[in-house]
Amino acid sequence: MKLPTVALIYDFDGTLSPGNMQEFGFIQAIGKTPEEFWKLSNCNPEGQEVNSILSYMKLMIEEAEKAGIALTRESFVSFGRNIKLHKGVQEWFSIINQYGREHGVKVEHYINSSGQTELIEGTHIAKEFKKIFACSFWYDESGKAVWPAVAVDYTGKTQFIFKIAKGIMDISDNKKVNESQREDEKPVPYSNMIYLGDGVTDIPCMKIVKMFGGNCIAVYQDSNNKQKETAHKLLKQDRVNFICRADYSVGSEIYKVVTTIINKVKAEDDFAKLQKKKGNYVK
Protein backbone atom coordinates (compact mmCIF):
# COMPACT_ATOMS: atom_id res chain seq x y z
CA MET A 1 0.00 0.00 0.00
CA LYS A 2 1.31 3.44 -0.95
CA LEU A 3 2.77 5.38 1.95
CA PRO A 4 1.74 9.01 2.54
CA THR A 5 4.45 11.55 1.70
CA VAL A 6 5.43 14.45 3.94
CA ALA A 7 7.43 17.25 2.28
CA LEU A 8 9.66 19.40 4.45
CA ILE A 9 10.34 22.63 2.57
CA TYR A 10 13.14 24.82 3.90
CA ASP A 11 14.24 28.35 3.33
CA PHE A 12 18.04 28.33 3.75
CA ASP A 13 19.57 31.57 5.05
CA GLY A 14 18.59 32.00 8.69
CA THR A 15 16.59 28.77 8.64
CA LEU A 16 19.23 26.08 8.19
CA SER A 17 22.23 28.42 8.43
CA PRO A 18 22.86 31.28 10.91
CA GLY A 19 23.61 33.81 8.15
CA ASN A 20 23.48 34.58 4.44
CA MET A 21 25.33 31.94 2.46
CA GLN A 22 27.51 34.51 0.65
CA GLU A 23 28.98 35.52 4.03
CA PHE A 24 30.87 32.27 4.61
CA GLY A 25 33.74 32.76 2.19
CA PHE A 26 32.66 34.51 -0.98
CA ILE A 27 32.33 38.04 0.40
CA GLN A 28 35.65 37.73 2.24
CA ALA A 29 37.31 36.50 -0.97
CA ILE A 30 36.32 39.68 -2.83
CA GLY A 31 37.77 41.81 -0.02
CA LYS A 32 34.50 43.08 1.43
CA THR A 33 32.72 42.80 4.74
CA PRO A 34 29.13 41.52 4.74
CA GLU A 35 27.95 45.02 5.67
CA GLU A 36 29.82 46.57 2.72
CA PHE A 37 28.56 43.98 0.26
CA TRP A 38 24.88 44.23 1.18
CA LYS A 39 25.04 48.02 1.32
CA LEU A 40 26.32 48.03 -2.26
CA SER A 41 23.72 45.49 -3.29
CA ASN A 42 20.88 47.56 -1.84
CA CYS A 43 22.13 50.84 -3.34
CA ASN A 44 19.80 51.39 -6.28
CA PRO A 45 20.74 53.87 -9.03
CA GLU A 46 18.80 57.10 -8.63
CA GLY A 47 15.48 56.98 -10.43
CA GLN A 48 15.67 53.24 -11.11
CA GLU A 49 13.78 50.34 -9.57
CA VAL A 50 15.88 47.23 -9.11
CA ASN A 51 14.99 43.68 -8.11
CA SER A 52 17.06 42.95 -4.99
CA ILE A 53 17.88 39.39 -6.10
CA LEU A 54 19.15 40.44 -9.52
CA SER A 55 21.09 43.22 -7.80
CA TYR A 56 23.06 40.91 -5.49
CA MET A 57 23.73 38.42 -8.30
CA LYS A 58 25.00 41.19 -10.59
CA LEU A 59 27.19 42.50 -7.78
CA MET A 60 28.70 39.04 -7.21
CA ILE A 61 29.82 38.89 -10.83
CA GLU A 62 31.20 42.44 -10.85
CA GLU A 63 33.08 42.18 -7.54
CA ALA A 64 34.55 38.78 -8.38
CA GLU A 65 35.88 40.16 -11.65
CA LYS A 66 37.47 43.10 -9.82
CA ALA A 67 39.10 40.70 -7.37
CA GLY A 68 40.39 38.46 -10.14
CA ILE A 69 38.24 35.51 -9.07
CA ALA A 70 36.93 33.21 -11.80
CA LEU A 71 33.32 32.52 -10.90
CA THR A 72 32.72 28.96 -12.05
CA ARG A 73 30.32 26.38 -10.72
CA GLU A 74 33.28 24.68 -9.08
CA SER A 75 34.41 27.85 -7.28
CA PHE A 76 30.89 28.47 -5.99
CA VAL A 77 30.72 24.91 -4.70
CA SER A 78 34.06 25.38 -2.92
CA PHE A 79 32.70 28.50 -1.17
CA GLY A 80 29.61 26.51 -0.21
CA ARG A 81 31.70 24.02 1.74
CA ASN A 82 32.37 26.77 4.30
CA ILE A 83 28.72 27.50 5.07
CA LYS A 84 27.88 27.01 8.73
CA LEU A 85 24.70 25.23 9.76
CA HIS A 86 22.47 25.43 12.81
CA LYS A 87 22.83 22.93 15.63
CA GLY A 88 21.64 19.45 14.64
CA VAL A 89 21.12 20.20 10.94
CA GLN A 90 23.88 17.83 9.81
CA GLU A 91 22.16 14.82 11.43
CA TRP A 92 18.57 16.02 11.05
CA PHE A 93 17.74 14.45 7.71
CA SER A 94 18.72 10.87 8.50
CA ILE A 95 16.95 11.09 11.87
CA ILE A 96 13.68 12.39 10.41
CA ASN A 97 13.84 10.01 7.45
CA GLN A 98 14.20 7.09 9.83
CA TYR A 99 11.35 8.36 12.00
CA GLY A 100 9.16 8.53 8.91
CA ARG A 101 10.05 4.97 7.85
CA GLU A 102 9.35 3.62 11.32
CA HIS A 103 5.93 5.30 11.31
CA GLY A 104 4.85 4.43 7.79
CA VAL A 105 5.51 7.81 6.17
CA LYS A 106 7.81 8.76 3.28
CA VAL A 107 9.72 11.98 4.05
CA GLU A 108 11.10 14.26 1.33
CA HIS A 109 13.21 17.40 1.75
CA TYR A 110 13.27 20.48 -0.49
CA ILE A 111 15.05 23.83 -0.50
CA ASN A 112 13.01 26.90 -1.50
CA SER A 113 15.39 29.85 -1.30
CA SER A 114 16.35 33.20 -2.77
CA GLY A 115 19.94 32.14 -2.14
CA GLN A 116 22.17 30.42 -4.64
CA THR A 117 21.87 26.83 -5.82
CA GLU A 118 25.60 26.42 -6.50
CA LEU A 119 26.57 27.51 -2.99
CA ILE A 120 24.02 25.16 -1.43
CA GLU A 121 25.39 22.34 -3.60
CA GLY A 122 28.73 22.80 -1.84
CA THR A 123 27.28 22.09 1.60
CA HIS A 124 27.50 18.68 3.24
CA ILE A 125 23.70 18.44 3.28
CA ALA A 126 23.08 19.10 -0.44
CA LYS A 127 22.56 15.40 -1.15
CA GLU A 128 19.66 15.29 1.32
CA PHE A 129 17.31 17.35 -0.85
CA LYS A 130 15.11 15.91 -3.55
CA LYS A 131 15.33 19.30 -5.27
CA ILE A 132 17.00 22.63 -4.59
CA PHE A 133 14.78 25.46 -5.85
CA ALA A 134 16.95 28.59 -5.73
CA CYS A 135 18.80 31.20 -7.82
CA SER A 136 21.53 30.13 -10.22
CA PHE A 137 23.88 31.62 -12.81
CA TRP A 138 24.25 31.30 -16.57
CA TYR A 139 27.72 30.08 -17.60
CA ASP A 140 29.53 30.76 -20.88
CA GLU A 141 31.49 28.28 -22.96
CA SER A 142 34.49 28.54 -20.65
CA GLY A 143 32.35 27.78 -17.59
CA LYS A 144 32.40 31.34 -16.24
CA ALA A 145 29.29 32.85 -14.64
CA VAL A 146 28.13 35.73 -16.82
CA TRP A 147 24.46 36.34 -16.05
CA PRO A 148 21.66 35.31 -13.66
CA ALA A 149 19.89 32.28 -15.10
CA VAL A 150 17.28 31.93 -12.35
CA ALA A 151 16.37 34.73 -9.93
CA VAL A 152 13.94 33.80 -7.18
CA ASP A 153 12.42 36.58 -5.08
CA TYR A 154 10.01 36.15 -2.18
CA THR A 155 6.90 35.93 -4.37
CA GLY A 156 8.69 33.81 -6.97
CA LYS A 157 9.26 31.20 -4.28
CA THR A 158 5.54 30.43 -4.21
CA GLN A 159 5.64 28.72 -7.61
CA PHE A 160 7.76 25.95 -6.14
CA ILE A 161 5.09 25.09 -3.59
CA PHE A 162 2.78 24.22 -6.49
CA LYS A 163 5.54 22.33 -8.31
CA ILE A 164 6.33 20.22 -5.25
CA ALA A 165 2.65 19.37 -4.86
CA LYS A 166 2.49 18.20 -8.48
CA GLY A 167 5.86 16.45 -8.48
CA ILE A 168 7.45 18.84 -11.01
CA MET A 169 11.19 19.06 -10.49
CA ASP A 170 12.01 21.24 -13.53
CA ILE A 171 12.72 24.71 -12.18
CA SER A 172 12.03 26.31 -15.59
CA ASP A 173 8.69 24.57 -16.21
CA ASN A 174 5.81 26.96 -16.75
CA LYS A 175 3.32 24.62 -18.42
CA LYS A 176 2.76 21.52 -16.29
CA VAL A 177 2.59 23.59 -13.13
CA ASN A 178 -0.48 25.41 -14.53
CA GLU A 179 -2.28 22.27 -15.68
CA SER A 180 -5.31 21.16 -13.69
CA GLN A 181 -4.74 18.19 -11.39
CA ARG A 182 -7.08 16.54 -8.92
CA GLU A 183 -6.08 16.77 -5.28
CA ASP A 184 -5.98 13.00 -4.83
CA GLU A 185 -3.58 12.74 -7.78
CA LYS A 186 -0.98 15.12 -6.35
CA PRO A 187 2.20 13.33 -5.16
CA VAL A 188 2.38 15.69 -2.17
CA PRO A 189 -0.93 17.09 -0.89
CA TYR A 190 -0.62 20.61 0.52
CA SER A 191 -1.86 19.27 3.87
CA ASN A 192 1.27 17.08 4.00
CA MET A 193 3.67 20.03 3.62
CA ILE A 194 5.77 21.53 6.40
CA TYR A 195 7.33 24.89 5.52
CA LEU A 196 10.25 26.16 7.62
CA GLY A 197 11.35 29.79 7.27
CA ASP A 198 12.75 32.62 9.36
CA GLY A 199 11.55 35.94 7.99
CA VAL A 200 8.99 38.12 6.26
CA THR A 201 10.25 37.03 2.83
CA ASP A 202 8.78 33.59 3.63
CA ILE A 203 5.28 34.95 4.23
CA PRO A 204 3.85 34.30 0.72
CA CYS A 205 4.93 30.64 0.88
CA MET A 206 3.71 30.31 4.46
CA LYS A 207 0.36 31.78 3.50
CA ILE A 208 -0.16 29.27 0.68
CA VAL A 209 0.93 26.22 2.66
CA LYS A 210 -1.16 27.17 5.71
CA MET A 211 -4.18 28.19 3.63
CA PHE A 212 -4.30 24.75 2.00
CA GLY A 213 -4.02 22.86 5.27
CA GLY A 214 -0.26 22.42 5.65
CA ASN A 215 1.87 23.55 8.57
CA CYS A 216 4.42 26.36 8.85
CA ILE A 217 7.23 26.83 11.35
CA ALA A 218 9.02 30.12 11.96
CA VAL A 219 12.61 29.43 13.03
CA TYR A 220 14.61 31.84 15.18
CA GLN A 221 17.95 32.10 16.98
CA ASP A 222 17.96 33.12 20.64
CA SER A 223 20.90 35.41 19.91
CA ASN A 224 19.04 37.22 17.12
CA ASN A 225 16.46 39.53 18.69
CA LYS A 226 15.15 40.75 15.34
CA GLN A 227 14.61 37.21 14.12
CA LYS A 228 12.92 36.26 17.40
CA GLU A 229 10.60 39.27 17.22
CA THR A 230 9.72 38.39 13.62
CA ALA A 231 8.87 34.81 14.60
CA HIS A 232 6.54 35.95 17.40
CA LYS A 233 4.94 38.49 15.07
CA LEU A 234 4.31 35.81 12.43
CA LEU A 235 2.64 33.61 15.05
CA LYS A 236 0.54 36.47 16.39
CA GLN A 237 -0.59 37.33 12.85
CA ASP A 238 -1.52 33.67 12.27
CA ARG A 239 1.02 33.37 9.45
CA VAL A 240 2.56 30.24 11.00
CA ASN A 241 1.39 27.34 13.15
CA PHE A 242 4.51 27.16 15.31
CA ILE A 243 7.68 29.03 16.23
CA CYS A 244 10.82 27.08 17.18
CA ARG A 245 14.42 27.75 18.15
CA ALA A 246 16.97 26.98 15.44
CA ASP A 247 17.95 23.66 16.97
CA TYR A 248 17.39 20.51 14.91
CA SER A 249 18.64 18.03 17.52
CA VAL A 250 16.62 15.04 18.68
CA GLY A 251 14.18 16.19 21.36
CA SER A 252 14.30 19.86 20.28
CA GLU A 253 11.19 21.96 19.64
CA ILE A 254 11.49 21.47 15.87
CA TYR A 255 11.93 17.72 16.30
CA LYS A 256 8.82 17.44 18.49
CA VAL A 257 6.69 19.57 16.14
CA VAL A 258 7.78 17.81 12.94
CA THR A 259 7.42 14.29 14.35
CA THR A 260 3.98 15.14 15.71
CA ILE A 261 2.90 16.40 12.28
CA ILE A 262 4.25 13.19 10.72
CA ASN A 263 2.13 11.19 13.18
CA LYS A 264 -0.89 13.34 12.30
CA VAL A 265 -0.42 12.79 8.56
CA LYS A 266 -0.13 9.03 9.09
CA ALA A 267 -3.26 8.91 11.28
CA GLU A 268 -5.30 10.93 8.78
CA ASP A 269 -4.09 8.73 5.92
CA ASP A 270 -5.06 5.60 7.85
CA PHE A 271 -8.47 7.09 8.62
CA ALA A 272 -9.08 7.99 4.96
CA LYS A 273 -8.13 4.46 3.85
CA LEU A 274 -10.37 2.97 6.52
CA GLN A 275 -13.29 5.07 5.34
CA LYS A 276 -12.70 4.02 1.75
CA LYS A 277 -12.46 0.35 2.74
CA LYS A 278 -15.62 0.55 4.84
CA GLY A 279 -17.46 2.08 1.91
CA ASN A 280 -16.80 -1.05 -0.12
CA TYR A 281 -18.89 -3.06 2.32
CA VAL A 282 -21.88 -0.73 2.36
CA LYS A 283 -24.77 -2.28 0.42
Could you explain the architecture of this structure?
It contains 10 helices and 7 strands. It is of the alpha/beta class and 283 residues long. Helix 2 (34-41) crosses helix 3 (52-66). The longest helix is centred in the C-terminal third of the chain and has 27 residues, at 253-279. The mean pLDDT is 94.
Question: What average pLDDT do the residues reach?
Answer: 94
Strand order of the largest sheet: 4-3-2-1-5-6-7
Indicate the radius of gyration in whole angstroms.
20 Å
Output the helix-strand order: EHHHHHEHEEHEHEHEH
The largest sheet, given as strand count, sense and whether it forms a barrel, is: 7 strands, mixed
Structural category is alpha/beta
Strand content: 15-25%
Uncertain regions: pLDDT < 50 for 5+ in a row?
Answer: none
Distance between the termini: 25 Å
Q: How much helix, percentage-wise, in residues?
A: 25-40%
Oligomer: single chain
Number of helices: 10
Shape: globular
Q: Write down how many β-strands occur, each being a DSSP E stretch of 2 or more residues.
A: 7
Topology, element by element:
Layout: E1 5-10, H1 26-29, H2 34-41, H3 52-66, H4 73-80, H5 89-102, E2 106-116, H6 117-121, E3 131-139, E4 145-150, H7 158-166, E5 193-197, H8 203-211, E6 215-220, H9 225-236, E7 242-245, H10 253-279
Parallel strand pairs: 1-2, 1-5, 2-3, 5-6, 6-7
Antiparallel strand pairs: 3-4
Helix pairs in contact: 2-3
